[in-house]
Design brief:
The structure is a single chain. This protein has 333 residues and is of the alpha+beta class. Helices cover 21% and strands 22% of the residues. A hairpin with a 5-residue loop joins β12 and β13. α1 packs across α2 and α3 packs across α4. The chain is globular.
């Protein structure tokens, strides 16, 4: 197994990503769009989530496909960004058809999740519907900008600068698993005593490009002082698989993908986090066996962990927060 050509969620056929970044106020929006829609699932593990339309993704509920996933800063205010993506898609005829005698409207289905970034940039400037529209205008395949961009502009993790990260893995037989994550965690991605990344062991083909040699890890001390002076954080993201999934299967992959957060961040899923992961099945051959579904979920967890590392390594110092590169590698990305 090896990363795709871009080592990004866009290695999954049909997936596009668009960012809108406000570097002045350190906030923004990231949109993940499956061309033609995708069956979706979601799993929320953190104790302080900020979400939109996640109940719709329950396997017991009606709508099967979503047309985009929005990840945004701004806390609860940032959920407004999804309205701009809905407008963008409607203008292009994308959405769930409504009408018995004929299509009288198309309603885009756009779930969303937000991070709390109000203490990093300007607390009075949050992503708007117009910002969501701009992010959708920037949708494209190929290489994905990472770090202090989009929804990760104001992200922080364990007292350091966080950001947007992405990764992928190609499996024998043609399956591709990709993930995009906004890293804004209460916990740390590294051992504060040694600087070693918790998930470095998952590195593939030198992708992290670290200068310092691996350091011995010490057990994390969860009794120490709070990891962040403002403990309101969230890791949010999206996993995509080129497989024909049903909603229950997509939900299971999203559930297993959360293991990647726990592999990369200590501690994870606290009451201060709103950790939320979506899963998109873009189509292709169906997943016919529990064994294959379990494999895809396990791979998704590793890809999420690697995406988290990329988000931190690509982040630049901003908002009074040092980046990991500045602190341990001698220079910002």
């Amino acid at each position: 197994m090896h990363p795709g050509p871009y080592n990004a969620i866009t290695d999954v056929p049909g997936i596009q990503v668009g960012h809108h970044t406000d570097l002045e106020h350190l906030t923004g929006v990231t949109v993940v769009c499956p061309q033609g829609g995708a069956v979706a699932g979601v799993d929320v593990r953190g104790g302080a989530p900020g979400t939109r339309e996640t109940d719709l993704l329950d396997p017991a509920n009606l709508v099967e496909r979503v047309h985009a996933v929005v990840l945004a800063g701004g806390s609860a205010f940032g959920l407004e960004a999804a309205a701009g993506v809905v407008r963008y898609l409607e203008e292009r005829g994308v959405g769930y058809p409504v009408g018995e005698a004929g299509v009288v409207a198309r309603v885009p289905i756009v779930p969303a999740a937000v991070i709390f970034d109000l203490m990093v940039g300007s607390p009075k400037v949050r992503p708007t519907a117009e910002d969501g529209y701009r992010a959708a205008e920037n949708l494209k395949g190929g290489a994905v900008a990472q770090g202090t961009v989009g929804a990760g502009a104001g992200a922080r993790t364990g007292g350091l600068k966080g950001g947007v990260g992405t990764a992928s893995l190609m499996l024998p037989g043609g399956r591709v698993v990709g993930a995009l994550v906004v890293v804004n965690a209460y916990g740390r991605v590294h051992d504060p005593k040694t600087g070693e990344l918790y998930a470095r062991y998952l590195e593939v083909a030198g992708e992290f490009r670290l200068k310092r040699p691996p350091q011995p890890l010490t057990p994390p001390d969860h009794t120490e002082a709070p990891l962040s002076p403002f403990p309101r954080q969230t890791v949010i993201g999206c996993v995509a698989v080129n497989a024909r999934l049903n909603k229950a299967q997509a939900q299971r992959i999203a559930q297993m993908a959360h293991d990647g957060i726990a592999r990369a961040i200590q501690p994870a899923h606290t009451l201060f986090d709103g950790d939320t992961l979506f899963c998109l099945g873009t189509g292709g051959d169906p997943v016919d066996s529990p064994a294959e579904l379990s494999l895809l979920g396990a791979v998704a967890a590793d890809v999420v962990a690697r995406a988290i590392v990329h988000g931190v390594l690509h982040a630049r110092s901003a908002g009074g927060l040092l980046s990991y590169r500045a602190l341990y590698e001698g220079a910002d990305e």
